């Protein structure tokens, strides 16, 4: 029979938050685990304080020193992580795993690869439909089945945490093996979508408009959209959506009056064909839980009918909770691990304190074979320092390049490619931008959040420690926080 | 090595080489003294819409011209039937949705199969260039050349790099293609009883090399398709497939949407309110996936993995919620003989007896030739 998948719960019960943010898993001895097919689930849910209101859609927003429009892989929630075994001690101890893995992610994935995981990303970008949606919602675009709030996992592949996360690990050799995570859930803040009349989440404000109604003498539950949707995926509405309905009623001889009331959507019909009224085809017929506030009389005309999303604040707001954590392990055939060579990262954090001509010396381990310095901006996650214009790396007093490496130049791209190749990987994407979470079009999505600089260079493996000098020329505000990751070789 | 390109027309040639929905096209592939090369078989022809092509006449953009093939059966004279895939275009659309993105459909190997990024684009393909003649239009039919996802395109040599099969081993190879009914291929607001399609000049092409007298052992991927239905919120699908399989995939559609012109017959609709999914082997859950799957992320993960995802897919949430790319599947990780054990799938969902769902299952198998 085939390999087996098992789930193990974390040592801590949860829920997890900024103060209770340590998670440990213990993989018992006697297991051979294919780490490449194993992952960690942080099971989360998001609900309104008053759960009777309906299903509000939301997205997570990366928030640190203010909200940011960036997207990032799920592993960005893990600040530090380590892998320790009973028999072999510390295997990997990666500080600022979020910075390391997020910035490497966009060198290792094409835009299509990245889009291929949209169904499980916690910080997704918009798609062609211009709607972002979270994995904690099962939204029904048509029919009468109510949309649902889901408990869904933040899925973090082991390969996005550890270099051994791509290997087969045999705990018969290693002994009990502990996976330790320190997470930063406070940086992922829920933001409601379609939040009130000022919301910009409708791809087009005209999507809110409904067709005028006249000649009706019974309670009005159903309205018809002015927009014709060629594709149901473009519809911004879902069954169970809490909404505010606005309309103007004209009842002669009284003057027109504006009416507004709150309700939720009970049913959506996407009119695929209508032989009697062909003009209705591709429109949405939206039925509410509660009828219009005015009982129609002959001669009444209802105009300016619009639907806006309702603010969850009226029901106490949204609460996002990391409920519990579990690890899913793929068991496989045992392997020989004695003498196995693997790589990992070490980190040296430093700060340029705004210097425009910044130089610093780093002592690197003998087995270090790659170095990567990332200059962080206020989001404390991405290498996004447009001020850095050029840099130069010197190894044991020998220049690695015959001239300064100008950020964005062919020599710069060459260094990045060398870095990846020396890591045994290929440079899969030179887009060097992180997708913008709110941008509507493809050009804006990949044109507003540049990832630079990657100050990288291969290093020779040496008998003793080596000295690496980094000289950076910057403009404006200069260099501040810098994370220097060194790739090192280890042997079991 | 001299490669020869072969072209085969159907056994039964209809007037004007024009074929209508539900026609059966039998192709006999004879390559005496030669060896057929793997992965070279293509089905070609022209797709013509009968009547005027209005805006609302569409076909599934991810299946493209594969949509005209309702079923494809392959028989080999010396062995017998080796594969019969029912609901073939649905399987192909599932593979496409799980392994390629919408942008990938613009690659030339997909364009010649009439695939496109959007169903609306398929309408433009059907329209082609039109020359106005009086009050009507003369339209050039759309040429297509599809590479069917079937056994003759999916065999490899085990102990050699010569992935070809000799005629002396197979004898005549018979490929039978049943054309889809109109409502299974076309959909949209403008599709009516007057709408139809025709396939003109259908043929199968393939390549061969001279027989050198050596025949490597061949492994051939084949599909076993099953169609069933579920009509309760606690559904158990029990299967026993006479094959050695390494994965299975299935997709769903409300029975009321089947072969209805308004709905895409290849839509991979989301199961309403799916809350639990359990895979049972011989009615026991202590093998393979040992726990109950409760989140849609893992359901989708296992589904795209069962179709050998390359990292590209269309399974983002808007597509799932608008019923375009949802499915359930499992990669077994190794080959499992399903002939001598039962494999059950338990689903807890919002399906009711008033709104039953069709289930289309495909078991991905391997045979030796």
3D structure, described in words:
The complex is a heterodimer of chains A (492) and B (369). With 492 residues, chain A is mainly beta. Chain A folds into three domains: 1-195 and 313-338, Adenovirus Type 2 Hexon, domain 4 (Distorted Sandwich); 205-310; 342-492, Jelly Rolls, CATH 2.60.120. Chain A contains five helices and 29 strands. Chain A has helices spanning 97-108, 111-115, 171-174, 410-422, 442-445; strands at residues 5-9, 22-27, 32-34, 39-48, 58-62, 78-85, 89-94, 137-138, 148-149, 152-157, 168-170, 177-183, 188-192, 213-214, 222-224, 242-250, 257-270, 284-288, 301-309, 318-330, 341-355, 357-364, 368-375, 388-395, 398-399, 405-406, 454-458, 466-474, 479-491. In chain A, the strands form eight sheets. A six-stranded antiparallel sheet of chain A has the order 14-19-16-17-18-15, with no helix packed on it. In chain A, strands 22, 24, 25, 26 and 28 form a five-stranded antiparallel sheet that branches. The longest helix of chain A has 13 residues, at 410-422. Chain B has two domains: 4-210, Hexon Major Viral Coat Protein, domain 3 (Alpha-Beta Complex), CATH 3.90.249.10; 218-368, Jelly Rolls (Sandwich). Chain B has helices at 88-99, 108-111, 119-127, 167-170, 182-185, 296-306, 317-321, and strands spanning 4-8, 18-19, 24-29, 34-37, 42-50, 58-59, 69-76, 80-85, 130-133, 136-139, 142-146, 155-157, 164-166, 173-179, 186-187, 196-210, 218-230, 234-239, 244-254, 276-281, 328-337, 343-348, 357-368. In chain B, the strands form six sheets. In chain B, strands 1, 2, 4, 5, 11, 13 and 16 form a seven-stranded antiparallel sheet that branches. In chain B, strands 12-17-23-19-21 form a five-stranded antiparallel sheet. Chain B has a four-stranded antiparallel sheet with strand order 3-14-7-8, with no helix packed on it. The model of chain B has no long low-confidence stretch (mean pLDDT 90). Chains A and B meet through strand 1, helix 2, strand 8 and strand 10 of A and helix 6, helix 7 and strand 21 of B.
